[in-house]
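Hey, quick one: can you model this chain's 3D structure?
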Amino acid sequence: MMKTVLAVAFAIICAGCGNNLAGPAGTPVLRPPSALTALSLDSTHVLVGWTAPADAADTTFRGYIFSWGTTVDTLPRTAVQFTAGPLAPGAVTFSIRSLLRSGQLSDAAQITWAPAWRFDASAVIVTEYNSALQTGLPGLDAGTATTNPHAVGFADVNADSTLDFYLYGPGGSSLQLVSASIYNPGWHQTLFSTVSTPSADLNAPLAAFPGDNTFTQTTVTLSDNTIYYVKTTGNAGEIYYVRIHVRLLGGSYPSRSADIRISLQRVSRLPYA
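Sure thing. Here's the predicted structure for all 273 residues.
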């Protein structure tokens, strides 16, 4: 299996972030860090970053308590990121509290992340579908819990059970990614989010993963250097969320192609890729 790196995604839940409420005897309440982010480094490690609170400039500020599950680490006052792991598959909630030398702790700032697999060391190349030629590899299996992304041809005897979407530009119009269910209603239904992100790679930060109510499109028109958010359905009803980065490779109709790199959430129904 190729070495993989994981994608960027964010889901922030802050308790008491940015408050400056009066505590006992009128002392200000210690604030937690803010603007939490998560970047997966590989399939089991996540780099969590944050912005230090104003309290960190005070000499009484000791650092942070960083925790997930039963793991607890004390970090120095200069820390603004921490690599957490190894992590088991599935969603993980990381908590960070500010810590004074007196032992006082702030409320927790939290971010939840589910490790995903990333396939961007090399691209999957898909070619434009042409009903007259019936050649090339226009389709793509975005991957599942056990399979990696790979190109699929319509003539493949297993296309109906593996193909998630294909590349199509009818009559030479703009290239689109199209759900396999449009080609054949019995094939996989793929839904594209109305949200997309211009980016040179898969590392674009998000305030939050696109809501499930945004996955409403069965086709999406492609732009160069853009991330698209995809929801695929497997043969047994499993659902996988995918981020795909598209780079158009030129060529001319009917032989255009696209360079696709993928971040795949292998855990069914967890929307963090």
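One thing worth noting: The chain has two domains: 12-113, 117-264.
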